[in-house]
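stage 2 :: seqdesign
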């Protein structure tokens, strides 16, 4: 998790917001769905792996009186987020696996949690996030969760490659997925939901297409939708 975003993706940081859409299908739609799940009444939103602040900015538009605590290990990308988010954000240059997560109403994460290498480490993270959230709090995640079935997972990978080939050569598309697979860990959807359940969350799939999903996890035993 110590590699910079630009290095991991093989791009210049200034290109990030434009290039991420060429890498991930339906990227903007997923962020819009995630932000729409943030209650308008939220006051403190924690963004894990905040990157350039694309999701955080959407959350702030949704919750007019909220402030964001953005956590990211890459100080260079936090400079981009600072310009985007302004005074409504406090940015923390630290990996979210070690950083203190303050008490909050909402925690969001967009294409960040796949950097957690093991399910045991992710289970510990989910337990920490559960403790940080208030009784009406929710965790909202956007990420890649391939199917358990290898046949379906293979079809999902082909769909991802088809998206990449609209922007890059076939060889480049294959190389990108191979390079990301070295560092990224994509947990199947059912297993991811299981990890959240065991941490004390009730999980709803808000959006699902091919290998990608938007999830909202609420504290079990707490109130439902606000």
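stage 2 :: out
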């Amino acid at each position: 998790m110590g590699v910079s975003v630009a290095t991991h993706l093989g791009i210049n940081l200034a290109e990030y917001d434009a290039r991420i859409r060429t890498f991930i299908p339906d990227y903007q739609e997923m962020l819009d769905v995630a932000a729409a799940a943030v209650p308008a009444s939220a006051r403190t939103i924690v963004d894990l792996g905040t990157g350039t602040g694309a999701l955080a900015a959407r959350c702030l538009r949704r919750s007019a009186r909220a402030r964001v605590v953005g956590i990211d290990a890459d100080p260079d990308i936090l400079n981009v987020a600072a310009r985007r988010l302004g005074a409504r954000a406090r940015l923390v240059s630290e990996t979210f696996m070690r950083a203190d997560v303050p008490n909050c109403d909402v925690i969001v994460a967009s294409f960040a949690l796949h950097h957690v290498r093991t399910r045991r480490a992710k289970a510990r993270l989910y337990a920490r996030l559960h403790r940080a959230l208030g009784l009406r709090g929710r965790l909202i995640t956007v990420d890649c969760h391939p199917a358990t079935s290898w046949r379906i997972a293979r079809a999902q990978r082909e769909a991802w490659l088809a998206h990449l080939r609209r922007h890059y050569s076939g060889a480049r598309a294959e190389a990108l997925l191979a390079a990301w697979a070295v560092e990224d860990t994509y947990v199947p959807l059912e297993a991811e939901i299981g990890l959240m359940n065991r941490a004390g969350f009730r999980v709803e799939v808000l959006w699902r297409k091919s290998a990608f999903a938007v999830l909202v996890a609420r504290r079990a035993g707490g109130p439902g939708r606000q």
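stage 3 :: structure notes
- Residues 222-226 have pLDDT under 50 and may be disordered.
- The longest strand covers residues 133-144.
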